[in-house]
Specification:
mainly beta, four-stranded antiparallel β-sheet, four-stranded mixed β-sheet, Cadherin-domain_protein
Length: 164
Protein backbone atom coordinates (compact mmCIF):
# COMPACT_ATOMS: atom_id res chain seq x y z
CA UNK A 1 0.00 0.00 0.00
CA UNK A 2 1.47 3.25 -1.13
CA UNK A 3 0.42 6.47 0.40
CA UNK A 4 2.78 8.81 -1.45
CA UNK A 5 1.19 8.26 -4.88
CA UNK A 6 4.54 7.25 -6.36
CA UNK A 7 6.34 10.30 -5.00
CA UNK A 8 8.49 9.29 -2.02
CA UNK A 9 8.40 11.71 0.87
CA UNK A 10 11.73 12.49 2.53
CA UNK A 11 12.23 12.00 6.26
CA UNK A 12 15.16 13.19 8.33
CA UNK A 13 16.46 12.20 11.73
CA UNK A 14 19.50 13.06 13.82
CA UNK A 15 21.58 10.03 14.63
CA UNK A 16 24.11 10.15 17.48
CA UNK A 17 26.84 7.50 17.29
CA UNK A 18 29.16 7.01 20.27
CA UNK A 19 32.33 5.01 19.70
CA UNK A 20 33.49 3.24 22.82
CA UNK A 21 37.20 3.00 23.44
CA UNK A 22 38.63 -0.50 23.52
CA UNK A 23 40.86 -1.22 26.51
CA UNK A 24 43.95 -1.99 24.45
CA UNK A 25 46.50 0.41 25.98
CA UNK A 26 48.58 -0.31 29.06
CA UNK A 27 48.61 2.29 31.81
CA UNK A 28 52.02 3.91 32.18
CA UNK A 29 53.96 5.89 34.76
CA UNK A 30 55.30 9.33 33.87
CA UNK A 31 58.69 8.36 35.36
CA UNK A 32 60.68 5.11 35.29
CA UNK A 33 62.12 5.58 38.80
CA UNK A 34 60.77 7.35 41.86
CA UNK A 35 63.06 8.64 44.63
CA UNK A 36 61.41 9.40 47.95
CA UNK A 37 62.50 10.51 51.41
CA UNK A 38 61.05 10.06 54.89
CA UNK A 39 62.32 11.18 58.31
CA UNK A 40 62.68 8.20 60.62
CA UNK A 41 60.68 9.96 63.35
CA UNK A 42 57.70 10.56 61.01
CA UNK A 43 54.32 9.43 62.33
CA UNK A 44 52.10 6.92 60.56
CA UNK A 45 50.17 8.64 57.77
CA UNK A 46 53.05 10.88 56.68
CA UNK A 47 53.37 11.30 52.91
CA UNK A 48 56.72 10.36 51.37
CA UNK A 49 58.60 13.46 50.17
CA UNK A 50 60.35 14.00 46.84
CA UNK A 51 63.39 15.74 48.40
CA UNK A 52 65.70 15.56 51.42
CA UNK A 53 64.28 18.82 52.80
CA UNK A 54 60.88 17.12 53.00
CA UNK A 55 59.20 20.20 51.51
CA UNK A 56 56.98 18.59 48.87
CA UNK A 57 55.28 15.22 48.44
CA UNK A 58 56.44 12.57 46.00
CA UNK A 59 53.81 12.58 43.25
CA UNK A 60 53.17 9.38 41.33
CA UNK A 61 51.24 9.92 38.10
CA UNK A 62 49.86 7.04 36.05
CA UNK A 63 48.21 7.69 32.70
CA UNK A 64 46.09 5.44 30.51
CA UNK A 65 45.53 6.37 26.86
CA UNK A 66 42.34 4.30 26.78
CA UNK A 67 40.53 6.79 28.96
CA UNK A 68 39.42 10.28 27.98
CA UNK A 69 41.68 12.90 29.59
CA UNK A 70 43.43 10.07 31.51
CA UNK A 71 41.23 10.71 34.55
CA UNK A 72 40.68 7.05 35.25
CA UNK A 73 39.73 6.27 38.84
CA UNK A 74 39.93 2.59 37.92
CA UNK A 75 43.72 2.49 37.48
CA UNK A 76 45.10 0.83 40.61
CA UNK A 77 48.70 0.81 41.83
CA UNK A 78 50.34 -2.21 43.39
CA UNK A 79 53.47 -2.19 45.52
CA UNK A 80 55.43 -5.40 45.02
CA UNK A 81 57.12 -5.29 48.44
CA UNK A 82 56.98 -3.47 51.79
CA UNK A 83 53.19 -3.31 51.68
CA UNK A 84 53.11 -3.22 55.49
CA UNK A 85 55.26 -0.04 55.48
CA UNK A 86 53.78 1.97 52.59
CA UNK A 87 50.43 2.42 50.88
CA UNK A 88 49.13 4.42 47.94
CA UNK A 89 46.66 7.28 48.42
CA UNK A 90 44.98 9.07 45.54
CA UNK A 91 43.90 12.61 44.70
CA UNK A 92 42.60 12.83 41.12
CA UNK A 93 45.15 11.30 38.77
CA UNK A 94 47.98 11.90 41.26
CA UNK A 95 48.93 9.21 43.74
CA UNK A 96 51.07 9.52 46.87
CA UNK A 97 52.99 7.00 48.95
CA UNK A 98 52.04 7.14 52.63
CA UNK A 99 53.71 5.63 55.69
CA UNK A 100 51.78 2.74 57.31
CA UNK A 101 54.16 2.03 60.18
CA UNK A 102 57.18 3.76 61.72
CA UNK A 103 60.58 3.28 60.07
CA UNK A 104 63.96 3.21 61.83
CA UNK A 105 67.10 4.25 59.95
CA UNK A 106 69.27 2.19 62.32
CA UNK A 107 67.33 -0.91 61.19
CA UNK A 108 66.94 -0.11 57.47
CA UNK A 109 68.21 2.96 55.60
CA UNK A 110 66.73 2.31 52.16
CA UNK A 111 63.54 0.66 50.93
CA UNK A 112 63.65 -0.41 47.28
CA UNK A 113 60.67 -2.02 45.59
CA UNK A 114 58.80 -2.05 42.31
CA UNK A 115 55.36 -0.70 41.59
CA UNK A 116 52.89 -1.55 38.82
CA UNK A 117 49.60 -0.08 37.66
CA UNK A 118 46.61 -1.95 36.28
CA UNK A 119 43.40 -0.79 34.62
CA UNK A 120 41.74 -4.14 35.26
CA UNK A 121 42.84 -5.62 31.93
CA UNK A 122 46.26 -4.21 31.05
CA UNK A 123 49.23 -3.97 33.41
CA UNK A 124 51.99 -1.35 33.22
CA UNK A 125 55.71 -1.92 32.99
CA UNK A 126 57.03 -1.96 36.58
CA UNK A 127 58.85 1.10 37.92
CA UNK A 128 61.43 1.20 40.70
CA UNK A 129 60.80 3.09 43.93
CA UNK A 130 63.65 3.99 46.30
CA UNK A 131 62.74 5.49 49.67
CA UNK A 132 65.63 6.78 51.77
CA UNK A 133 65.10 7.04 55.52
CA UNK A 134 66.63 10.27 56.85
CA UNK A 135 68.27 10.08 60.26
CA UNK A 136 66.65 11.85 63.19
CA UNK A 137 68.35 12.46 66.52
CA UNK A 138 66.26 9.79 68.22
CA UNK A 139 68.89 7.82 70.18
CA UNK A 140 70.40 8.81 73.51
CA UNK A 141 74.19 8.92 73.67
CA UNK A 142 75.77 5.77 75.06
CA UNK A 143 79.16 4.77 76.45
CA UNK A 144 80.83 1.58 75.31
CA UNK A 145 82.09 0.75 78.84
CA UNK A 146 80.48 1.14 82.25
CA UNK A 147 83.54 2.79 83.80
CA UNK A 148 86.85 4.26 82.60
CA UNK A 149 90.24 4.77 84.26
CA UNK A 150 92.14 7.79 82.98
CA UNK A 151 95.24 9.66 84.02
CA UNK A 152 95.23 13.42 84.11
CA UNK A 153 98.58 15.17 84.33
CA UNK A 154 99.21 18.54 85.90
CA UNK A 155 100.88 19.91 82.78
CA UNK A 156 97.89 19.20 80.50
CA UNK A 157 96.41 22.15 78.61
CA UNK A 158 92.71 23.13 78.59
CA UNK A 159 90.80 21.25 75.87
CA UNK A 160 93.39 18.47 75.64
CA UNK A 161 91.78 15.03 75.34
CA UNK A 162 91.96 12.61 78.22
CA UNK A 163 90.12 9.63 76.72
CA UNK A 164 89.12 8.31 73.30
Amino acid sequence: AEQDNGHPLPAFANLHIEILDENNQKPYFTRSTYEGFILESSPVGTTISDNRNLTSPLQVVVLDNDVEETKDPQVHLFLNDYTTFFTVTQSGITRYLTLLQPVDREVQQLYTFSMTASDGVQESVPVTVNILVIDANDNSPTFSNISYNVKIYTDMKPGEGVIK
